[in-house]
Amino acid sequence: MRYALMTLAAVMLSPAASCHPVETSTKAESIKTPTPIEIVTAFSAAFPQDNGRMAIRRWFTPKTVWINEGVSKTTGIEEALAFRERRNSSSSIAAVYFDLLAIAADGNRVLTERLDRFVRSDGSEIAAFKVMGIFEVDGDHIVAWHDYFDVNATKKLSNDRH
User: Fold this and answer.
1) With 0-12 CB in 10 A as exposed, 13-18 as middle and 19+ as buried, what is 147?
2) Looking at the domain assignment, is residue 3 inside a domain?
3) If you placed Cys at 48, which of 43, 88, 95, 112 could pair as Cys (CB 3.0 to 4.6 Å)?
């Protein structure tokens, strides 16, 4: 035992041992997983592109529940896309921008205060609404999204679409 300890000490103190550091982490460990706030921020930034289709396909799952309180509820990617198409099919809305006014997280739940701006293809604004939202994130996907807003204020958007 005495010789084993002396051999171990000699190896550890040798110049060769200090020249070759041992890699203790794997590449998978060094890849940073996005935080729930980063996921929601990226989703919000991507939403205006392609009428939200790209963002929904990227961050939703087949079981994601999206609730616009008092207006709609969808489950999954296809229902969410169908809702987006139905809402914009006869309208002059070219994009919806989410201006994040405040954002906070509690674990995997992200609370947002937003100004949702509806714009025409020429960039002019149709309407803007203050919205409080809560997102639930699992891994790098949004599994639930609930929005709360003044439903009566959205009548302006409906009137301007026709």
Assistant:
1) buried
2) no
3) 95
Domain-located, residue 64: yes
Query: Each residue of 71-91: pLDDT tens digit?
Result: 899 999 999 999 988 765 556
Sorted by sequence, the CB contacts under 8 Å of residue 127 that are 6+ apart come out as 117, 118, 154, 156, 157, 160
Asked if 143 and 61 count as a contact pair (C-beta separation under 8 A), the reply is yes
Residues 6 or more apart in contact with residue 117 via CB below 8 angstroms: 96, 97, 99, 125, 127, 128
55 CB-side CA count, 13 A:
20
Which residues touch 11 (CB under 8 Å, ≥6 apart)? 17
Q: CB of 158 within 8 A of CB of 92?
A: no
- The residue behind tokens 């296809």 is 78
Here the tokens at position 29 are 């460990």
Over the stretch 108-162, which tens digit does the pLDDT of each residue have?
Answer: 999 999 999 999 989 899 889 999 999 999 999 999 999 999 888 766 666 554 4
- Number of domains into which the chain is organized: 1
pTM, to two decimals: 0.76
